[in-house]
Amino acid sequence: MARKRTLQEIDREIAKLNQEADAIRASEKAEVAAKMKDAIAYYGFTAADLGLARGGKKEAKASTKAKPKAGRGAGSAPARIKYKDDAGNAWSGFGRKPKWFVEALASGKTAEQLLA
Question: How far is CA 6 from CA 1, 3, 11, 12, 14, in A?
């Protein structure tokens, strides 16, 4: 019959696994951060879009149009504009449809009319 493990043995094993998990997390952190930065730059997210603005909901609603960022990550290309309107709004066609695009479609315009 197999020997039953003690609580102390299990606690030592848990501590060892937690250390291993922390080491893996630390080694993967830089790669994940780089991927996130590339996605933020590519899609033009703002702090407000991500819910990181300091002013809460009021500040988040103030910026409805994504602004292109100057310093894109190494190796990433700027998004090509696929759709635009007369007000100067532009969208690459990737990701969630921006509010201006949805409103334009609701007002009767077609996606073909908004092609850049």
Answer: 15, 9, 9, 10, 13
- Domain chopping of the chain, boundaries: 1-77, 80-116
Q: pLDDT for 18-61, tens place per residue?
A: 999 999 999 899 899 999 999 998 999 888 888 887 765 554 45
- Radius of gyration from C-alpha coordinates of the chain: 23
Reading the block at residue 99, the tokens are 């509010």
Question: CA 40 to CA 105: how far, in whole Å?
Answer: 26
| Backbone φ, ψ for residue 61 (5° rounding) | -75, -20
Classify domain 80-116 at the CATH topology level: H-NS DNA Binding Protein (4.10.430)
Two tokens, residue 53: 């603005």
